[in-house]
Amino acid sequence: MTIFQAIKSLVLYAQREGLIEKEDIIFSVNSVCQALGIEAFEDCEGEQNANLEDILKTILDYAVQNGLCEDSIVYRDLFDTGIMGLLTPRPSLVIKEFNEKYRESPKAATEYYYHLSRKSDYIREYRIKNDVKWITKTEYGDIDITINLSKPEKDPKAIAAALTMKQSAYPKCQLCKENEGYMGRVNHPARQNHRIIPIDLAGEDFFLQYSPYVYYNEHCIVFNSEHIPMVINKGAFEKLLSFVELFPHYFVGSNADLPIVGGSILTHEHFQGGNYEFAMAKAPVETKLTFAGFEDVEAGIVKWPMSVIRISGESKERLCELADKILNAWRSYTDEDAFIYAETDGEKHNTITPIARMRNGKFELDLVLRNNITTEECPLGFYHPHPEYHHIKKENIGLIEVMGLAVLPSRLKEEISLLADALIGGKDITENEKISKHAEWAEMIKNKYTLTPDNCEDILKKEIGIVFTSILEQCGVYSRDDEGKKQFIRFTESVK
Q1: Contact at 8 Å (CB) between 351 and 369?
Q2: Which helix (H) or strand (E) holds 358?
Q3: Residue 209 to residue 492: CA distance in whole angstroms
Q4: Cβ atoms of 128 and 210 closer than 8 Å
Q5: Are 58 and 37 in contact (CB under 8 A)?
Q6: pLDDT (mean) for 310-316
Q7: For residue 271, what are the β-bridge partners?
Q8: Per the confidence metrics, is the pTM higher than 0.70?
Q9: Are 396 and 384 in contact (CB under 8 A)?
């Protein structure tokens, strides 16, 4: 494909996917030519069904060869995002189209917007498809596992350049509204093809966008128009329920507002949602509860590895009132026998990870009890992956994982392959520094199964899912046994 064919193919792609109209073709060709320093375009057919990744590769190779772009993934991403920004409709047009679709139905609006976010290359679909995904069946339901490979790692050139760059506070973070259309830099992604949708949540200005690294279907982010810190309070519950009222086909949840159990950017208030049903949402209530004065609200403890109270009802206001009572009771709750301390040395430990959804015409809130206390044996957090599982995952357990989707480090893709090879070949795992950390776990697997070249990787994946389920149990503040159940009930009875 010549550079002229690539330009024409790109513009035809943009027309086909609804980014531009037929009347925009010549203008768009000239805009891309200008970005590439091409003064005279040689008209050609272009490929009607060319693959976007292939088209952009041709354009990027041309840019590198002509000194317009450094040949590294970070610089190439900065450059091709600028190209795609030329073909992405202006924010006012996107908002107008979204609102027109919303009058048809909330689902029609989000389908339009999700399509735009993917086809403008804001969500790089050709990278997302490389993510490794599988399901592990557990007593709690089907747990989703993903090894995310779509977020590019920084390359040496970009790392070196970032060290010499003047520090910038614009945009303040990657969630701020000022990212829309931003050109980016080596330590901040380009966002010329990024469009955001203004929405009102409980009387406050928020924006809707999709995550560029989608972990599940229509993975969206809802962020405050102002750069203000995360906080879990009655207002947060009101905003979450307001969102699912606007978009009843989506769930939405918030990370907790304390370190360790936050697992997210705590400096900018935001929520995550989408059109997906996680295992936790499918999990049943195993113990019904009644809260005094809230007999009209259905409540219960969910059968889930973490400690979850589910409340539901027809009134948003009543759910928010009860959720606020539970939150305030939990914030100040100490039960030494259960190793739960509201605070130590002035540091607060208790908070909640809330998730909202609509079910059968009723509002539903899952309130996941969290605690971030640390110990000598668990300096990263007691209700956090324990050291014996750090060979699989040691990062925080945030909202998405609380609901039953493991987001595992990219290193595991190679390590699974190396482990399988070592186990089948009878090699000494301790001699390979990439997989030596897995030695004890691998020995357990070897003794548990009859391993063959055909089943080894599948068994390793299954056991990774089992490890993740055990991690979720460790993150639950109440153990999944009779004593833990009594302790959990003791807390619910303290809610007045």
Answers
A1: no
A2: strand 350-359
A3: 36
A4: no
A5: no
A6: 98
A7: 222
A8: yes
A9: yes
Q: How far apart are CA 310 and CA 289, in angstroms?
A: 9
Instruction: For residue 62, give both structure tokens.
Output: 């041309």
What is the Cα–Cα distance from 133 to 215, expressed in whole angstroms? Answer: 10
Tell me the per-residue pLDDT of 400-453, one tens digit each, with 9 for 90 and over: 999 999 999 999 999 999 999 999 999 999 999 999 999 999 999 999 999 999
Distance in angstroms (rounded) separating the CA atoms of residues 378 and 363: 37
Name the nearest CA neighbour of 12 among 1, 37, 130. Answer: 1
Taking residue 197's Cβ as centre, other Cβ atoms within 10 Å add up to 20
CA distance 429 to 423: 8
Sequence-distant (6+) residues with CB within 8 A of 381 are 260, 261, 372, 373, 374, 396
At residue 130, what is the residue type? N
- Residue with the two structure tokens 């009058």: 103
CA–CA separation, 123 vs 218, rounded Å? 11
- Contacts of 415 by beta carbon, 8 Å cutoff, 6+ apart: 434, 435, 438
Number of H helices, E strands in the chain: 16, 15
Q: What is the 3-state secondary structure (H, E, C) of 424-435?
A: HHCCCHHHCCCC
Alpha helices in 146-278 (DSSP H): 156-164, 234-246
Question: Does an H or E element contain 77, and which?
Answer: helix 73-85
The residue assigned the tokens 């088209």 is 55
Q: How many angstroms separate the CA atoms of 272 and 252, rounded?
A: 6
